[in-house]
Structures are given as structure tokens and as C-alpha cells.
Amino acid sequence: MSETVKYVLDEARIPRAWYNISADLPAPLAPVLHPATREPVSADDLAPLFPRGVIEQELTTEREVEIPEPVRNAYRQWRPAPLYRARRLEKALDTPARIYYKYEGVSPAGSHKPNTALPQAFYNHAEGVRRITTETGAGQWGSSLALAGAMFDLDIEVFMVGVSYKQKPYRRAFMESFGARCIASPSQETAFGRSVLADNPASTGSLGIAIGEAVELAAQRDDTKYALGSVLNHVLLHQTVTGVEAMEQMAMADDYPDTVIACTGGGSNFAGIVFPFLGAALRGGPSVEAIAVEPLACPTLTRGQFAYDYGDSAQLTPLTKMHTLGSGFMPPGFHAGGLRYHGMAPQISHLKDLGYLDARAYDQLDCFAAGLEFARAEGIIPAPEANHAVKAVIEEAQGCRERGESKAILFNLCGHGNFDMQAYTDYLAGNLSDLGGSQVEAAMALSGLPSVER
């Protein structure tokens, strides 16, 4: 048996197309609805927020969407990303499982988020947009769009969830280093932000609030558009560059995953690694078990309701059918800020409803313990978000040991934790606690779901 640890593709092997799972869904997605009319949205309805190139990708059902050459050239800075065989972790766990991880922390921003930030910046620049507003939780998305803005000559304004703004000053510094402006949310810069602060001056913010602020600003100027780092179809589409590469690298390893795992907040990195494999299975290829892992403090897939809801707390966005805790849900300030979103991507929610994926939820202390176990074996400190996937991988590998089963487990190590060392400092000092999930607060938020008869 080969003892290869790292499977590397040449730059020429960067995929030429993204994969769109909408082409292979056994049943179509529920339509996206206009927030005022409750009728399916058109391309014109989305035009105030997104450039035409992005809107076309949001609505398409073509299986493959060509990656523009300027985007492929920008990807060359770090893509193809390496695939690793976690041999040292396998030994530490004494498991017969074969563990692989696709490492997206090699990107300039340290996560998978540039996979969609670059194409979104490209399409905006191509249509004459001068400014993009956005939100960020832990800061990976804001960092990535700041980088993309510098590459494609765009002004970037980022509303960063207030608790993360305080917890992660180096993420803020990263954005500002690339010329972006970073604002703590809720802020005094928007009518919605001011209304939140009027109700609760100590609000720690949420992704739903930050999205509402960014959308409000984008709608006010013709030279400005909005960009989202997860949830929407075009974002998940762009992320599949990860899984398309991983399929080729697994072939290099002469292996194929039985189980594919990723953490889920809005769903982009999960879709990126899982969808190409799941799409192959839907077309009659080898079956795979797909496991989405989320925080117990924000459990959209495991405790949310599959229903129409707004993507933001200001209720300005179109309505999508998704697993949701309610757009008014306020998650506690746990350290995996990228997973603090009230809803799950419609495509992932749809596949969960159809029974094509499993979901698990863990509290943060177990996830940090798993992340350190991985780091001490593999030499990479994962982002707090990625620790959720690591926790599930370790559980799966231990199950293989107990059953004497050898299976291949692939997961997406979606980012490194080098900007998150305060979180690890707090964990190692015993200053973190499990936050669980407030079922009462979730029930209150779900009680406010919009009434949609479809």
C-alpha cells in the first residue's frame, strides 16, 4: 500500500467548470418568492442586489457552468488545493478507517471562501459595479471579499457581527489591509442597525442582522451591489471547485469516499465538498453517506423547521424554503462565528428533506477538543468552524475501530485557525463553556415565520 500523504494536482488541472446539483435533483427546488408579492422572483427582481452574471447562475439548472478564464487565473494563486491522507490521525485513533481531508486553508484568506468571492467580484467588476456591501460572521468571508475586491478593483464594505468584531481583531485587520471597510453590526450606519440598537443597546449581533444592514446599503446606490458568502445557489455552485478537484485526487489515491463530512452554517463548504460526489450518486454512480455537522447552539438542520423564511433579520430579502430557526433567532456568541446563521442553504435543506444527507449537532467544548486532537496528529490547527467536522470524523473513525470496519472518510478542512488563537487560548484556560441551544428562543423565532401558502 502506498504511504502517500499529500495528493497534489498541477495548475493545469484546475477545473474548467463548476458543478450544479440542481441539474440532478430528483425533485425541483421550491421557488424563491418576492417578499412583497409572494410570487416567484424573476431575474429583474434580483437585479438591484446582484449583477446579471450572478443572477443567471442563481437561476440556472445547467449541470456545468464554465469558470471564466480570469477567475481560473486568480484561482491559480492557491488552487488546486491539496488533498491529504490523515495517516498520523488514523494511527492516533488506532482505526482501520482511511481518513482524507481537502485542505482549503491554503488560500490567501485561509479558508474556502475565496472560491466564491473571486467570481462574484469578477462579475460585478465586469458590469461596472464600483462597490460591494456584505456581511461576515467569523471574518473568513469578509477577508475573502476584501482580497477579491483588491484583485478586481472594487470598494468593499463589510458588516461584521458585533461579537466576532470584538473576538477576532486580526480578521478585521486583514480586511482593512486589503482596503476594505469593516463595521461592527448592529451599527448606527443603517436604519435597521439603529432600530436593533434602540431595542437592545448591548446586542452582540447576528448574521441575519448584518445581512439586513448590508442589503439596506446596497439598495440605496446604483453603483453598489450586495454579495453573500453562503446559502444561495450561485455561492454553492462556485464552491464545488473543491469537490471536483477532490474527485480527481481520490482517484489518484485509488480510493473513493464511503462518507463525506463537512461543517454547516449557511452550507457553502458542505456543498463544495459533498455535491460533486452526491451528484455522481444521483446519476447512478457509487453511493456516499453525506454528514452535515452544525453547532448545537445554532442547530438549523437538526432542530429547525423546513419552511419559507427571510434570509435576513430586517426581512428585506426574498423568501426561500429552507431549514430555519427563524430570521429573528439570536444565537449565543460561541466562537465558531461562521456557523451562527439562522437558516440553511435551500439546496441542502431540500436534500435533507428528501433523505439524502444526515445532520449532527455538537457543543463547542467537544469540538475544540477534537480540533486539538487533530492538530497534534496532523500539524494543522483547524478553524473553530472546521472543528465540528473533525469531531464527526473522529466519531466515525472510532466507530470503524469498534466494528472492525475499513471505510474511506473524506472531509473538508475548510480553513485554518491561525486567526482564531484567542478561541484556543480561552479553551485551554478553561474559560469556554458549552452553550447548548435555547429551544425557547428558537420556538419564539419560529413563531414569527412568514405565512406562505404553497
From TrEMBL:
InterPro entries hit by this protein: Trp_synth_b-like (IPR006316), Trp_synth_b_CS (IPR006653), Trp_synth_beta/beta-like (IPR023026), TrpB-like_PALP (IPR001926), TrpB-like_PALP_sf (IPR036052)
Pathway(s) of this molecule: Amino-acid biosynthesis; L-tryptophan biosynthesis; L-tryptophan from chorismate: step 5/5
Catalysed reactions listed for this entry: (1S,2R)-1-C-(indol-3-yl)glycerol 3-phosphate + L-serine = D-glyceraldehyde 3-phosphate + L-tryptophan + H2O
UniProt EC number: 4.2.1.20
Location of the Tryptophan synthase beta chain-like PALP domain: 78-415
PROSITE patterns, per the entry: TRP_SYNTHASE_BETA (PS00168)
Top enzyme class: lyase
GO molecular function terms noted in the UniProt entry: L-serine hydro-lyase (adding indole, L-tryptophan-forming) activity; pyridoxal phosphate binding; tryptophan synthase activity
Cofactor(s) required, per the database record: pyridoxal 5'-phosphate
Pfam assignment, any one: PALP
Summary of subunit composition and partner proteins: Tetramer of two alpha and two beta chains.
NCBIfam families: PRK12391.1 (NF009057), trpB_rel (TIGR01415)
Sequence similarity: Belongs to the TrpB family.
Protein name: tryptophan synthase
Source species of the chain: Halorhodospira halophila (strain DSM 244 / SL1) (Ectothiorhodospira halophila (strain DSM 244 / SL1))
Upper classification of the organism: Bacteria, Pseudomonadati, Pseudomonadota, Gammaproteobacteria, Chromatiales
